Amino acid sequence: MEYIPVIGIEIHVELKTKSKMFSSGPVSYGKSKNSQTVLFDLAYPGVLPVVNKQAVRYGIQVASAMEMDIAKVLYFDRKNYFYSDLPKGYQITQNDHPIGSNGVIKITLSDGTVKEIGVERAHLEEDTAKQLHFPKYTLVDYNRCGTPLIEIVSKPEMHTPEEAVKYVEAIHEIITYLDVSDGKMEEGSMRCDVNISLMEKDSDKFGTKVECKNLNSIANVKSALEYEIKRQTELLNNNQVVEQETRRYNDSKGITELMRKKTDAVDYKYFREPNIAPIKLSTSFIKDAISSMKHLPEFYKKVFEDCELTQYQISQLLPDKNFTYFFYECLNYEVVSPKILWNLLMGDILSYLNKTEQKLANLQINKEQLVLLSNEIAKQNISYQQGKDVLNILLKEDKKTSDIIKSLNLSQVNDNLAIENIVNEVLSLNAQAITDFKNGKDKALGFIVGQVMKASKGKVNPEKAKQIVLNKIGN
Amino acid sequence: MRKITKQVLIDCADNLLFNLSDIELEKLEKDFENFISQIEFLKALDDIDSEVCTTFPYEYYSNYLRDDVPTKPLKTKDVLKNVNNKFADMIKVSKVIGE
How confident is the model at residue B49, as a pLDDT? Predict the structure, then answer.
């Protein structure tokens, strides 16, 4: 039997506000335990919730980025449950009237297909306390309690792990480019729960849904889904039933494990939060929130397409907004070849950052001087290899590109006669390589050109050198 | 529905650790009779499933949103002042969800 996976995703995003969703308690990370709460967060008698304006602005911006209908009136509800992670005994959330509804996320798959994934709702709520579970007891730190969250719920319209990954990446790009959240999955500021079932091909009946919780990386979303598709397919093919349950992904074993079986839906006895009157959002407030949104990845994609970067090059820049901003800011200067600039950034600079364990945001490099360097390479005044030497100095010292080139006595040899002389010398010393090339060993050509570059101390134009070598040893 | 007798009310009060006087008990029993009769009345009505619950007694809209300005948090020692069971500045509670 052939099955079609049906995937829906719920994503909780912690909003980057200074204070909590319904209290003025500070939102800060890495502080000592139970040091970031106010009376409301601990549910002292008589405390009342007051909605955070900035969280609402962020909610409108996220909803707008996903082309949603934005609520004109905010309603909040109580989700009642008794557990130590929320001392009030309920979570304030938006059950019936989310701030955003009926949105869409466009994803581009590896074969170039563009697919639209429906987003059912996005609603504002408060986060719970962080709990550390031990075999016999639980420790509770209420610092996170009340942190603003936006929960984004997709429609069950994804059918492959790749689609799910692209969807999560798209949401991650939206929230990080809007700067409404850190979006750090490994630190829990963006958390993913995935629902998956298998539907028989040519049927319109959904299979039994399994929920995989708290996947803390995009790679884990993919692995968990791949594992679940395999597990559920095997069960169904062996005439066994898929049970409705909640599972967690075990990173080290690469499998999902049972957390709990879902016998009946939990009744949270939702009702309207009586301590927050409905809040009318003025048109000007909504418009202002939308007009002050930062550019989304789509904006930068168009700019980069205009400077003729390939789709691959663009796809390498966009997932990390810091690289996007860096490249975009470089375009303020006159860039002769964006492709060479991209190679310097995504090849040499990225490699330098990895080696030195630095982040791009902390890198002290003058963007204008970097652009001048890429222009020198593009104009063939220096070779790319020489450019790397200049870059190594630019990365460490605040110097001008032109001064470095002068001090290193760098210039590219483009004169055909001069290159030919060096080529002749190299060929006379490498008869075996010539024979190898003539016998079909293509690598021998690279070796000879490498020897020419070495003999010229990296100064000759490598393209011209290659052409002259080819002319001489021919086919 | 369970009948709310005087004994039920006394048991509830015991569970909540307070005492009821005879006068209070009389009054509370009458209040419950009244309340249950209203529930019975509502239960007899048809087509109310789609009705929105009344949370606020009259139509009122606010436009107030709090500025995102944090205030000084409570000191950890004050947060933990009434906590009997603590460890490493965290509150120690019984585990209710199994691994």
Answer: 78
From the list A197, A191, A170, the residue with the least C-alpha distance to A103 is A170
Kindly report the pTM of this predicted structure: 0.82
Contact A43, A83 (CB under 8 A): no
> Do the chains contact at A36 and B68, CB–CB below 8 Å?
no
Q: In this structure, how many other beta carbons lie within 10 angstroms of the beta carbon of residue A463?
A: 12
Those residues with Cβ within 8 angstroms of residue B54's Cβ, 6 or more apart along the chain or in another chain: none
For residue range B72-87, list pLDDT tens digits in order. Answer: 999 999 999 989 999 9
The answer as to whether A291 is a domain residue is no
Note whether residue A121 is domain-resident. Answer: yes
**Is there a single domain that holds both residue A53 and residue A152?**
yes
| φ, ψ at A108 (rounded to 5°) | -110, 120
Q: Is A128 on the interface with B (CB under 8 A)?
A: no
Residue range A313-335, pLDDT digits in tens: 999 999 999 999 999 999 999 99
On whether both A253 and A129 belong to a single domain, the answer is yes
Q: Rounded to 5 degrees, what are φ and ψ at A323?
A: -70, -40
Contact A26 B73 (CB under 8 A): yes
Of A66, A74, A70, the closest CA to residue A94 belongs to: A74
Q: What is the pLDDT of residue A176?
A: 96
| CB neighbourhood size of A80 (10 A) | 14
Provide the strand spans (E) within A273-341: 279-280
Residue A340 has pLDDT above 50, yes or no: yes
Residue B99 has pLDDT above 70, yes or no: no
Q: What is the pLDDT of residue A318?
A: 94
Instruction: Specify the amino acid at residue A126.
Output: E
Q: Which residues of B touch A133 (CB under 8 A)?
A: 95, 97, 99
Tally the domains of chain A.
Answer: 3
Note whether residue A292 is domain-resident.
no
CA distance A407 to A401: 10
Q: What is the ipTM of this complex?
A: 0.81
A261: confidence class by pLDDT, cuts 50, 70, 90: confident
Contact: B74, A282; criterion CB under 8 Å: no
**Average pLDDT value for residue range A201-226:** 92
Residues A128 and A269 in one domain: yes
- A-chain residues near B91 (CB < 8 A): 34, 84, 139-140, 142
**Which structural domain, as residue segments, surrounds residue A448?**
416-473
CB contact under 8 A, A52 and B94: no
Q: A141: part of which helix (H) or strand (E)?
A: strand A137-141
Residues A424 and A394 in one domain: no
